Amino acid sequence: MKEQQEMLYIKRTQKDYSLSLKLQIVKDIEEGKLGITACKKKYGIQSRSTVVSWLRKYGNFDWENQTPTNMSKTPEQRIMELEAEVKLLQKQKAFLEKQAYVADKKAIIFDMMINLAEKEYQIDIRKNLPPEQSMTSAEKKKKP
């Protein structure tokens, strides 16, 4: 059994890994798909420092200021963000409903004004076209 474990362990250096593999590992870690230890196990990397050095070399982490580009949030912070987003969406919904109500009232008022103008001046403002006049000119030409 000890012989099998020794056969599985192969000493490797950073030069043994391809650039595409390094970039894939960095991408997986930065997107949060896998952690450093999970990548080590998945790709058979022997040292954590190897992965960290790739993150420093190829990653988007700001090593001078020691701040990651996107910090993970606690569930409480996420809940607070979602509650704020819900409130914002409710305000937007109320505003849009008010705008729709005003637009409906405007349409009714404009319709009433047109009716009044048609009665007062006895002219047709709205176009009431018969069905045959509403055809396009191409359709008219086809009909002999």
From TrEMBL:
Record-given protein name: Helix-turn-helix domain protein
Organism in which the protein naturally occurs: Cloacibacterium normanense
